[in-house]
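FAQ

Q: What does a record look like?
A: Structure on top, sequence underneath. For example:
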């Protein structure tokens, strides 16, 4: 059994989902799914569902525009002025972190790589290189720059050109911004979407948890639980095929440990589908 999350009350709807998944209660999960309303713009329910069908494009584009609406509006204002202040950078970093897409997989049509491109297009941003509004996650520790694996920054316009803003906290708790040249960052990746594995230890006001349309060995109840419990206030389950959710609840790791070291039994159907966390 996994540890209890204190982000939400156990008797909240998110708490009910987390408890049922953690206990491997397939029928309870099926009952919760049946009573979960569909996501639509302006939804205020704590748990909603989105079933994109065969294509993620339209459904996830609409979800992303709604989830990052305030951030995107503020970003457009900064881009129009051509110069971002420290206070604006802190606000943009905080606003961006209110919503996050979490994927079970890195590759494939429902994975991080594909969805990062889709979401950048949905927000009217560039697809390659450095551009204003690009969110990046550090992928390995850089002690020279005092950056740790998992730190998130935003590329923003300044008087000196594009710079990447990272929030930092002083010993007295005061927040400030560090600005770095993009050329100094050689171990970062775009992070409109991230894997559940990368999100361990993080929390977001609204999480959209994206499952693939086929079961894979890494899609286990432990991964589902971790994804669900990243949400503080709202959870949107993006599930192309409801049967995959039921299969994932029944699929458990063979040994304890982080999501990066899963060891799973494979059925013949599992072996035919790839994917990694």
């Amino acid at each position: 059994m996994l540890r209890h999350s204190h982000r939400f009350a156990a008797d909240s709807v998110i708490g009910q989902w987390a408890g049922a998944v953690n206990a491997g209660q397939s029928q309870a999960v099926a009952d919760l799914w049946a009573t979960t309303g569909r996501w639509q713009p302006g939804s205020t329910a704590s748990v909603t569902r989105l079933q994109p069908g065969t294509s993620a494009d339209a459904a996830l584009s609409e979800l992303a525009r709604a989830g990052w609406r305030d951030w995107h509006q503020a970003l457009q204002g900064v881009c129009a002025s051509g110069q971002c202040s420290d206070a604006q950078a802190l606000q943009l970093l905080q606003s961006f972190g209110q919503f996050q897409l979490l994927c079970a997989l890195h590759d494939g049509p429902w994975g991080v790589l594909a969805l990062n491109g889709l979401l950048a297009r949905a927000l009217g941003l560039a697809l390659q290189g450095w551009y204003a509004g690009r969110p990046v996650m550090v992928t390995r520790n850089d002690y020279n720059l005092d950056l740790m694996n998992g730190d998130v920054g935003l590329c923003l316009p300044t008087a000196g050109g594009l710079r990447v803003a990272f929030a930092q906290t002083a010993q007295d708790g005061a927040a400030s911004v560090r600005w770095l040249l993009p050329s100094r960052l050689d171990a970062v990746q775009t992070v409109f979407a991230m894997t559940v594995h990368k999100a361990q230890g993080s929390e977001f006001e609204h999480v959209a948890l994206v499952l693939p349309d086929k079961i894979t060995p890494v899609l286990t109840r432990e991964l589902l639980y971790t994804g669900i419990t990243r949400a503080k206030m709202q959870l949107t389950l993006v599930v192309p095929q409801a049967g995959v959710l039921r299969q994932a609840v029944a699929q458990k790791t063979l040994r304890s440990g982080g999501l990066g070291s899963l060891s799973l039994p494979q059925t013949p159907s599992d072996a035919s589908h790839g994917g990694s966390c």
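Q: Is there anything notable about this one?
A: The CA atoms of residues 217 and 268 lie 11 Å apart.
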